[in-house]
Design goal:
By secondary structure, the protein is of the alpha/beta class. The protein has ten helices and eight strands. This is Archaemetzincin-2. InterPro entries: MetalloPept_cat_dom_sf, Pept_M54_archaemetzincn.
Length: about 325
């Protein structure tokens, strides 16, 4: 099943084919910063995927795989199917994966998230799904498959206008397809050059270009996309619904392209909700201002490691300037 985790039909000798999957430790570091004051750690027991006895007498069709959980020595049957669009050889059913997560959620854990490299689908009408959470059950599953930089052209993603460059005025106007007269009327004379978002866009533009000749840049980009979605899905486990107030990482999305135009940070409304949860978890003596500063400090340290990648450089610049704004 190893070949299931890579896109089909691409030249393996191409430059971008050398990009490594995001590493668990890097995603873990991001979540530890995002969910500061909560203990975020790896699940201690091995999970193993293996074949499930086929219902086909001829053994020609593999419709299920088994997910084995170490200590319980039990298997969860995971339904699979060929990818409808052919970008991956197979997909796994995320509802089955979430059922497994519910079964193995430790008694001393608030939530559990699966990070997998395989493509997902939720029901037969879905083309694919990048992630899902059962907030009430406090479990989530996120896939890195569709965030593979190899697939950006197929997904209609402009890598030069991902967040924060998705807020570029000319790009926004072009996406809205406004007449020139209206575009001119919407132009603001205010000097916003020192705003956090303006500084984030400037930092994004000053990094190495996104190209197949820079596998380190593409790896960092892939990591950013996966980590942002992981923080989003875990947010549902904390009781946060899709945000309808401001630009926010908890916003809903209808496509990968839209997903990657959204910010990695929480809006003031959702940030307040998470701070409230942190207060409940920490008990007495909670200082919300100190908590927010610690979150930003840890996240800036994470961004610093990937500062050669536009999205990370932009996030770091936003964090640095939001404190002064």
């Amino acid at each position: 099943m190893a070949e299931w985790s890579g896109p089909s039909g691409f030249n393996k000798a191409a430059g971008m084919a050398r990009v490594q999957h995001p590493q668990l430790d890097d995603v873990l570091e991001y979540l530890q910063a995002f969910y500061h004051d909560f203990e975020v750690k790896k699940y201690n027991h091995p999970l193993t995927l293996g074949p499930w006895p086929s219902d086909d007498k001829n053994g020609e069709t593999v419709s299920f795989v088994g997910l084995k959980e170490g200590p319980l020595n039990s298997y969860t049957r995971i339904q699979t199917r060929p990818s409808p669009d052919g970008l991956f050889s197979h997909q796994m059913n995320l509802d089955n994966l979430l059922d497994c997560a519910i079964n193995i959620l430790p008694n001393d854990a608030f939530a559990l998230i699966f990070l997998i490299h395989y493509d997902l689908y939720e029901d037969e009408d879905d083309d694919f799904c990048c992630g899902r959470a059962y907030g009430g059950s406090r479990v989530a599953v996120v896939s890195s498959a569709r965030y593979n930089p190899l697939l950006y052209l197929q997904a209609g993603i402009d890598p030069h206008h991902m967040w924060p460059a998705s807020h570029c005025a000319q790009y926004v106007a072009s996406q809205c397809d406004l007449p020139n007269k209206i575009k001119k009327a919407l132009t603001r004379p205010d000097d916003l050059s020192d705003s956090p978002l303006h500084q984030a866009v400037a930092a994004f533009k000053n990094t190495l270009p996104i190209s197949s000749s820079q596998p380190g840049v593409l790896q960092g980009l892939w990591l950013f996309c996966l980590a942002r979605t992981a923080s989003h899905e875990l947010g549902h486990c904390f009781g946060m619904d899709h945000c309808v107030y401001y630009a926010c990482t908890m916003q809903g999305t209808a496509s990968v392209a839209e997903d990657l135009r959204q910010p990695p940070y929480l809006c003031p409304v959702c940030a307040k909700k998470l701070a409230r949860a942190a207060e409940e978890a920490s008990g007495k003596g909670f200082d919300e201002e100190k908590y927010r500063k610690n979150v930003m400090t840890k996240m800036m340290a994470t961004c610093e490691k990937w500062k050669h990648v536009g999205v990370w450089a932009g996030y770091k610049a936003w964090l640095e300037n939001i404190r002064l704004w």
